[in-house]
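[scheduler] slot 2 assigned
[scheduler] job type: sequence-to-structure, two independent chains
[scheduler] chain ordering preserved from manifest
[runner] begin chain α
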Amino acid sequence: MDLPFIVATLTRRGLLTPGRPVRIASQLNALRKWGWSLAGELRQAAARDPGRTAVIDEDGVELTYQDLLERAERMARSMRAGLGVQAGDRIGVLCRNHHGLIETIVAATLLGVDAVLVNTGLSAAQLGTVAEEQRLRLLVHDDEFADRVLGLPAELPRLDERAREELVAGALPGELHPPERDGRIIVLTSGTTGAPKGARRPTPNGFGPLVSIIDRIPLHTRDRVLIAAPIFHTWGFAALQVCFALRATIVLHRRFDPAATLAALVQHRCDALFAVPVMVQRLLEVPPPDPLPSLKVVAVSGSALPGGLASAFMDVYGDVIYNLYGSTEVSWASIAAPADLRKAPTTAGRPPHGTRLEILDDDGEPVAGGRVGRIFVGNEMLFEGYTSGGSRETRDGLLDTGDLGRLNADGLLFVDGRADDMIVSGGENVFPSEVEDLLAQLPQVREAAVIGVPDPEYGQRLAAFLALHPGETLDPEAVREYVRHYLARFSVPRDVIFVKYLPRNATGKVLSRELRRYYG
């Protein structure tokens, strides 16, 4: 990425403002010694703004950047001296969003330890599989998961919240030096269709990844940011990285509650919110506060925006939605700004600076404009492969996202869904996402999901699962007629099933495998 662009973007976002020379020198020295790992980012923030509030938990705990760094260092020293954790080990982190989660991840990176961010929605059996496959040396978990970890091997040490606090409080004096190897962050893929896989996240090697994001999403130094997206997810972790780089004040709640989130946005005068789309939908289902929060940015990612959601939210809270399309494997691919979403509410936007995006056919050749193909992406933060040893197909430095999509005449990207979600019904290719977006626009529908199911005559057929707003009703044939009016006949769902809610994982993605259980 070219230096003039980096300097211009950092200046616009307030990162190159003058400050006390001693603190600036200490900040730069921290980055020189520790790099752009999470530990390095926290050290630079504590060097430049030691007394600035770094984290505010929902229970009222507030920690400055200096407090947060000292607690993470104490935990790192205790893990090394008391538990024998050392560079190259892997520890599991099974925590919701609170300061203890952040301290644990930073402590791991201080030691050169890999931190496996465990999805809080995993079952006990899945957790056991993750512990075995990732060869965990230690598991740090919130108290609420005590029952879920009972079945893990007895030889795997476990730290609940009290034990973690005892490590912090009882740390022996000592000094930490940059480890010989960088500790990697291992994010588990969403596992909506099968067992989650561990994806090794690279450590940034400069300002490029940060600049790619904040050039398109107008976040500024010392903003106040509520991270509602789970930090164990790629999007929530990316939010944490950006906040450290910007020396922002981070507001955290363990669980997402729409009314409590709106109240916190107002109480803490938040400038930005990081969320997943289903959270934005839930915010619209509760009365807006008076006054409204003074949000400049609502950054969403993690799953597709349902049709009309962006426009409906911006009609209430202003033109503040920024939709980032990406994945655990490619980090980011494109970003849609409010103007893009006003023009085309389901667009995934355009690639940010320094990102290459191409739509290719099965032979690796570019497809014509407007045609559907496989989405390939290249940027500075492509993952380093799965911990199992596998990877994804690459072509000319671009990584296969596993999604299908198209570019319109204005260069806007539209994602049609996962390649393995496309169904062939009677010889016709059908994308469930197109039908979902249409059904979501029905005023009676709270949320919709469409999947392919086996059919003896056509090979596959569409099944629509609809959760309605309280007190609303719909007739299945009326739903089919509605789709028939707007889409081709092969896009009409043969089955229309009404459910109380859609099964989702902790990041808000619909669990297709759970819906298929309706068919045995």
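[runner] end chain α
[runner] begin chain β
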Amino acid sequence: MLWSLFGLPLVVGVALLVAGHRADHHAAVVSIATSVVTLGMSIAVAIIRPAMSVPYLRGITFGLRVDGLSAVLVVTVAVVTLAVLVFAAGEFGAGEAQARYHGLMLVFASAMLLTVTATTLVTLLMAWEVMSAMSYALIGFHWRQRRRAASGTVAFLVTRAADLGLYVAAGAALAGGASGLTLDALAGLPDGWRDVVAGGVILAAAGKSAQLPFSFWLARAMDGPSSTSALLHSATMVAAGAYLLLRLEPLLAATPWASPLVAWLGAVTALALGAVAVVQTDLKQLLAASTCSQVGFMVLAAGTGGVAAGSAQLVAHALTKSLLFLTAGAWLMALGTKHLPDLTGVARRYPVVGTTFTVGAVTLAGLPPLSLWATKDQVLTATVPSAPALYLVGLAAAALSAAYAMRAVTLVWSPPTAEPRFDTEHPGTRHVRRAQSVVLPPLASGAALLGVLAVPDVWSAFARLVSHGREATPEWWEAAVSAAVALAAAAAAVAVVRLRGDVPEQDGLLRWLGLEAFARERIARPAVATGQVLARFDDQVVAGAVHGTAALGLRLARMTTLRWEPVVGGAVRGVAGGVRRLGHLARRPQTGQLHQYYAEIAVLLTALVVLLIVL
């Protein structure tokens, strides 16, 4: 069943990719049916909890296992994949490469399912590679548009650079003697090797989850289709790094410096990218920045040992953010814009989309009694024993979450103050297709109802499911404080939008703290310049030395030819002439007359006798 869980979407996805345009007409139906079956199998494996291991190389295995943590994740991935593929059926029209798109999505989903069930670094690396390749293809799906293709390249290069850490970790684990490269064996590595493994894992996870300083690649990823953002950048790829840190929390705990580093990395990212989200004028950019911020809470939980809290945050965020990305995509298709000032009043115009967007945004704001309020409190509670400063930073990040979410809600429900500009990105259809709207209420219901995790008994059951240890639950005053902070920040955001029309623009925050510009100026351009210098060195010095050596050899050959060829040639010609003359002389006695031959023999015998007498 584990083979089938990731094998079915993989095989069907590859078949759609190979079929190409011939399968466009049936691609959506085939991919949706595949995802329905995959969802059924994910529920089955979550109940049965199977495991498998097959030999890969000597001493190294290819292993998969469904435990409590991965059981929750495989069901979440399957649910979101199904919802996104149904939405995508209405997002793409006739003449578009639907088979290619649905094939890429299914292969990506297969890789994500493989990631969350992997038990060895070999399995994880295989899935990690496929995820990276598929994300590149999906972000740059409309590759004929130069910016979108370039955005796919930026996302690919940034994440791949960070992914090198996972290879370093695998090499260190192998050198350190990790049995079979299993993930469970990493925490028991000797000092030194364990530090290298932890550093590589943190680097790879930070890059994949768009944590600082890698966050800017997620801004460029928003140039992909909205359904791509809903799957890759809510429940799967961006969450994969956080999941890896949660899975390897024992490794972080065993490495003295790793847990504090991860906790502060998540907290600072949650705060900084929350501030970035507050001022964004593009709805998808706002959601992207908020994704970095919310994933920061998951990373914070991994650093403080809150495996259950981080897992709950991951699941709640997956449902909430996939809902919000899909509603943004519905408006983008209908109106041809995702510019927030031009989306004022659209919730009134499209009430189903507007209502579900509001549910998702209020959930994202962390307002009680919805899901992210409950999971955020669990994450903050896990920080208290580690460092109270982390709690304060996390609380400030939670306030920013309420601010940017309620700002968006207020704008989409406010009556327009000026004539909105539609069709700025592409011509809008002015309607939302049924396939797009039908998946929004179930996602909104799931995002809201997961607030049941705030009930102590429910939370205890969930914590026992995904974590071996017992995790603290929030005190009443902690829940009250976080609720008060979120409500106050939400009220402040609503008041600012109502009184001033919107928040003032901040250029640095609007450009994502200048992270992409910094990477371009301080990393990309110096790397290109260094490459050009090395290329010139290769052309002028290395290649010049090769050409010079060849030229010198030719000159020496010519000099040798000029000096020695007459002598050698003359000797050869002299020998040949002497042989030729001897041949002429040898032919003279050959007359064919017998008496002359006898005379010649007699002369020779006489000469031999004389020689014998003399000698």
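[runner] end chain β
[qc] chain β: Residues 515-587 form the longest helix (73 residues).
[scheduler] slot 2 released
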